[in-house]
Amino acid sequence: MKLAKETAPDETDKELSSEELAEEEEDGSDFEIHSQESEEGQDRLEDEDEEFEGETDEDDETDEGSGEEDAEGESDEDAEEDDPDEVDEALAEYMAEINAEQHRKPSWHELEDPGSDSSEDEREQRNTVGNVPLEWYKDEEHIGYDRDGNKIVKGQKKDELDKLLERQDDPKAWRTIYDEYNDEHVVLSREEIELIQRMRKGMLPYARTAEGERFDEGPYFTWVEHDGQPLVDMPEPKRRFIPSKWEAKKVVKLVRALRKGWIKPKEKESVKDRQPPTYLMWSDDNKVAEKTAVNLPYIAAPKPTLPGHEQSYNPPTEYLLSAEEEAAAQRDEEHPFLPKAYDSLRKVPAYGRFLHERFERCLDLYLCPRTRKNRVTLDPESLLPKLPKARDLRPYPHVLYDRLVGHTGPVLALDVDPRGELLASGSSDCTLRVWETRTGRCRNVWTFRSPVTDVAWNPQSGVRILLVAAGKEVMLVDGELCPSRLKGPVRTLKQLEGGVNEVAKSEADGTTWCKWQSIPDQQAELWGNGMQIIHDFTVKTVSWHSKGDYFATVAPSGQSKSVLIHQLSRRMTQCPFRKNKGQVVHVLFHPSRPMFFLATERHIRVYNLLKQSLVKKLTPGVRGISCMSIHPGGDNLLVGSNDAKVCWFDLDLSVKPYKSMAHHRYGVRGVAYHNSYPLFATTSDDGTAQVFHGMVYADLMQNPLLVPLKILRDHTVVDSEGVTACVFHPHQPWLYTAGADRQIMLWCEV
After folding, report:
1. pLDDT tens digits, residue range 385-401?
2. Per the omega criterion (within 30 degrees of 0), is the bond before 219 cis?
3. pLDDT reported for residue 265
4. Which residues, 6+ apart, have CB-to-CB distance to 629 below 8 Å?
């Protein structure tokens, strides 16, 4: 009973009121408590206190019951031995002592020291690293060491979702804080929470005095009066509340003098000025330190070798030379000094090579500069980019499968029809040949009046029309001469509506752009049924629109007529670019947008055909653009140049190349993308064709992956011309290359 009375908490200090907790929620807390003190948290604390009090009451009742039973048992046993009057007197004295102990106030030495009542004294510190920032251990797997020297491993950090679930399951989570120094979670007791709340209110941390009284019951201190009079009866002077006018004037004068430079602040004496001057007796008067102080890569010259025993005026006997050794030493230039023995220093003659050696020393200091160079040790393999292996990027063409021979001049152009059945090739021998891709057999041969510079099949798989550029004429060859083996309707030139023998003129000034006409009857036997468009200048390249109704022609020497856009269905020609800044080299249509790419020797301009405006101007940074090809996705452009560079443009990223590759030795003649595989190829006058892996990702935050795969070398360089053109098969990983050696080669994946 006595122990229960002493440990029972005071009623005023038993639990916190809801008003205090509401004030604490408004003030906020600087401690890392997992949740704010809310009504729910107060209810949890009250429930825990009630459970604790209930358990204490039950224990007290149990102790009282057991005590009564023991007392009854003992009284029954001792009743026979002890006198009843003596038992009553002892029991009365015992109860009086208990009442006196309950009403007695504890003395100051019996109370706990409030200054030492802290969590630091109660809980033992696991971490013994001292007062060092934990940032030093941010890259380590531990945060310190315990008393036995073992590492304190960092606990696994939980994400916010796990912390939320833990707070919902644990009723004590709202009064749990995280000790970062010891990497552990500490549950605050009710007394500690009350202490925190009192400190946040600006009250004293502890509610009891040394005499056991509460501070809340009275004032912090009591005023001691002496005979009813205050300690000092003098009224406060007025000057204590009004700033001094004279001091303000003096301060203004000092500030004015400092601004005008009348008063200069005293410079602080440096540490070097305080020390007495010192000199190095056996050094170069500290000149080396002065030169290296400005971070110059200067290295002091090595000092001359100090004289040894052989240069003494009286050397030991073993250093003296015999007559034969002296004669041999005189012939040897490496040992010009001959040791000799003298009785005294006065007999030593002047050194004959003194001036010569001093002069050589001066030359060494003057003509031999010494600089400090940082040596960098690098692994050559670390400089290479980490790329996937070529065998992991298959399929790609790397084996020569077939040679197509038939042209008598350099092959200048190649193209495969959209169905992948036929291959068209144009040569400087003024012929156009059509080959079967499966068998390699030549199906048809057309002969023109000029060299065939470019060929292009209509991109629509249902239209079999071949566009041929030969001199000033652009031919539309009918595809009915090359019947398709695949099932499905195939439209030919005869089935397209529109008239012939029309002249395309400008509506403004009547300028003639070109002339549309059907192939003459005397040439129909050689060329077949088709049409021809006669230009005023030599046409170098042609390009189809993705829908197959429009195509563009480029005549570099045509000036204002260098770029013409033709419409096949209406037999109409337009000249959208009257003034070109530079000689036009190549043009392309965007595969899905109304965009038009026009390449000059230095720049590539991108136009919007609907708005008829310039969108952007690409700057490859090369000397002369020779060819270009656009990715089937439309977001990347490949450009080849005459200075052996290939530029990859990301049209959504920048107007400058994403990557410039210089894998060829001479000018690049052709570039091509594959329609379905992540492949692209380049050809050059060095006689090689190179195949690359070019993966373009749908994620705009991920850069394209460019990996060189194979160098194809079977073509022969003829008259400084190597591989002139290349084209991929639309469905298979096959590559066709044409060269100045009159051959067409098929490269496949075996």
Report:
1. 788 888 889 899 999 99
2. no
3. 79
4. 588, 637, 638, 671, 672, 673, 680
